[in-house]
Amino acid sequence: MKKKVVIALGHKALGTTLPEQQVAVKKSAKVLADLVEAGCQLIISHSNAPQVGMIHTAMNEFGKSHDDYTVAPMSVCSAMSQGYIGYDLQNAIRAELVGRGIYKPVSTVITQVLVDPYDDALYNPVKEIGRILTSEEAEEEEKKGNFVTEVPGGGFRRIVAAPRPKDIIEIDAIRALVDAGQLVIACGGGGIPVLAQGSALKGASAIIEKDLAAGKLAELIDADVLMILTNEEKVCIAYHTNQPKALDNITAAEALTHIENSEFGKAAMQPKIQASVDFVTSGEGRKAIITNLEHAADAMLGRTGTVITK
User: Is 147 part of any domain?
Assistant: First the structure.
């Protein structure tokens, strides 16, 4: 049987602007195709940080300038980012696979991720989104019930919550595609956060940490490996000192100790470690690998990267 691998692509694998993204996904597609040729069955998740911010800014500025249009909520902006990133990514992967004589369908699933309405994170927003606001604009946002924060250098920005993922609404569809041998792109940008209201789903004004969503995806499809691609070849502790220490193989317990001792970057690396721990402890025989795009194939073969096991 092929090894089932969930890959979480970071910002570097996608670029920022539209032209950058089209170049970046072609490079990423080569690495992903290498893994397919090596016998991996891939399920791909990805970042959307600059893209969703761009969409949010554009849609809200458009709504302000045109009386006949409304601003777009965060859930809609997230859906848009999943769609256009998935479009570029699936086409780049398909072209790379076909060029190698591999004929495998590639599909993007616009994914909703269930969050808990009582999650404390919903009442403590931390993720900045959108452009710099004036004090008047910030006041208007607060009147709407949104949160804003003052930023260095002057001005304000809107901030949204980052709740933990509880379940994936489209998981049955994702499983069906994976079982059919297709390459699936899902949970882009952490998925669209939704709250259950009876039989309906309501978009939440939030952004789910994409690594935690990737970990939940890996858990629910019973993946063998969760590979999180970031900027570094290996995870380091004491990263802010003159003598950072790279980690090769650690257990989930050791990883949690490092978290408790604040030895990882809280915003950048800690969610990746937490997602890895959640995944490897949710089943038997699972492992998580954290490395960068350039070393993904070598890391899958055990030659580099940081490996976290139960």
Answer: no
